[in-house]
Write a structure and sequence with these properties.
There is one protein chain. This protein is mostly helical and about 160 residues long. The chain has two domains: about 5-120, Four Helix Bundle (Hemerythrin (Met), subunit A); about 130-155, no CATH class. The chain is built from eight helices and two strands; from the N terminus they run H-H-H-H-H-H-E-H-H-E. The protein has a two-stranded antiparallel sheet. The longest helix is centred in the first third of the chain and has 23 residues, at about 5-25. About 15% of the residues are buried.
């Protein structure tokens, strides 16, 4: 079975998703990104850093390669909390701020480039690879990926 249409569709969807993040990040200032609109609300900085850093971390599971995020990126982006916050409460992440908007955009672009390079390298067999079989470990069971997993588990 030829999955080129599926892979093409996946790539186009990711390109479109990335374009939405580019559109948003190109219209914001550092003040917008770090603003807290009301007590108890998380700043855009949290959501933006969280999703980009989780994409980066997730690629490790798919490729076996270390994430791009490292001490150098941390120093450049300078988040007030150098953590994606996945295992933290909203209260613990309420102080998340981005220190350098341009560096955050650069990190976003590096993650997007890496994601598309991974898609471009997928083979027929990769589409059938089970990354985590059910039942999932506790740390995985509470994730979005677990919610959308196949009956056999999480697949590429």
């Amino acid at each position: 079975m030829d999955n080129s249409l599926v892979l093409g569709s996946l790539r186009r969807r990711l390109v479109a998703l990335h374009s939405l993040y580019r559109d948003a990040s190109s219209t914001m200032t550092l003040d917008h990104v770090n603003a807290v609109v009301q007590s108890g609300a998380l700043p855009i900085a949290f959501s933006w850093f969280h999703i980009i850093n989780m994409m980066d971390a997730s690629l490790m599971l798919l490729t076996g390669e270390l994430p791009l995020w490292n001490d150098d990126w941390s120093a450049r982006v300078n988040p007030s909390i150098a953590d994606h916050g996945k295992h933290k409460t909203p209260e613990e992440m309420a102080g998340q701020r981005i220190g350098d908007l341009g560096a955050m955009v650069d990190y976003q672009e590096a993650v997007f480039d890496r994601t598309l390079a991974w898609i471009d390298g997928l083979s027929e067999g990769d589409l059938h690879r089970v990354i985590f079989a059910r039942p999932f470990p506790d740390q995985i069971a509470s994730t979005f990926s677990a919610r959308v997993a196949d009956d056999v588990g999480m697949t590429s």
